[in-house]
Design goal:
Layout: H1 29-36, E1 37-41, E2 49-56, E3 59-62, E4 70-73, E5 75-76, E6 79-80, E7 82-85, H2 86-95, H3 103-116, E8 146-149, E9 153-156, H4 158-163, H5 200-213, H6 218-225, H7 229-237
Antiparallel strand pairs: 1-2, 1-7, 2-3, 3-4, 5-6, 8-9
């Protein structure tokens, strides 16, 4: 029931007959709806690469516009299927240069489970064997938050996850800061407020940035200015 890339859970669909949603207050409506959907990949999936909705109780499903309903069992005796949240799947497809819907792209994506094996089962369900999830990025280990409940079903301990200050992981990786037409006083509240200077040592960096910005795409510009509080302030006041 978790993403094979980020290792975070899926949230159950409203049509689930026996849902197990996260505790109230953990996810807002947009995040809840985002975590409902995943992209399944591999030879065990109808269509090889298919967007599915988590129905809980070990099942993903889909109700497309054609007269056909998919119901895919997530875990079986031979392993689990490879499923990623929609944005995580976009990252996977970009990594393997398989972003289109061509036969070659689908073949390459199906080869993931052929090379790495089907994702694991049980308390490690969805995890790709041999992938060092805990050794990349911020080196977060999510394994302690997953456990078998009465040895019947896997559950994610949302409260323990949030109490460990890991809520930032729930933010979608494709959502960038929004810049409104006006700047509120709260966003400009710096203590102490920086003073204007004119010496070359303190203004040269900003001058260099002004030159470099002309070479950045809009996406790169926003990403760069989002990296620290000082640059975010300059984005609102200087640039």
């Amino acid at each position: 029931m978790w993403c094979s890339l980020c290792r975070l859970p899926f949230t159950p669909s409203p049509i689930s007959v026996y849902p197990h949603p996260p505790p109230p207050g953990i996810l807002n409506e947009k995040l809840y709806n985002y975590f409902r959907w995943g992209v399944a990949m591999g030879s065990w999936v109808p269509g090889a690469v298919t967007t599915l909705e988590w129905l809980d109780n070990n099942s993903f499903g889909n109700m497309p516009s054609i007269p056909m309903v998919f119901n895919v069992r997530w875990e079986s005796p031979s392993g689990t299927i490879l499923v990623c949240h929609t944005v995580c799947a976009t990252i996977v497809r970009a990594t393997f240069d398989a972003q289109d819907d061509s036969l070659q792209a689908y073949t390459d994506l199906c080869q993931i489970e052929k090379v790495l094996g089907r994702p694991m089962m049980g308390a490690q369900g969805g995890r790709l064997s041999g992938v060092d999830y805990e050794g990349v990025g911020h080196k977060v280990d999510l394994r302690p938050f997953w456990a078998l409940n009465n040895k019947e079903r896997i559950e994610f301990n949302w409260h323990a996850f949030m109490s460990n200050n890991l809520g930032w992981m729930l933010n979608r990786p494709d959502v960038f800061p929004r810049f409104g037409p006006t700047v509120t006083a709260e966003r400009l509240n710096f203590e102490p407020s920086p003073t204007a200077t004119s010496d070359i040592l303190t203004i040269e960096l900003v001058d260099i940035l002004h030159v470099l910005f002309s070479y950045l795409s809009d996406a790169s510009f926003v990403l760069f200015l989002s990296t620290c509080r000082s640059l975010r302030r300059h984005a609102l006041t200087t640039f």
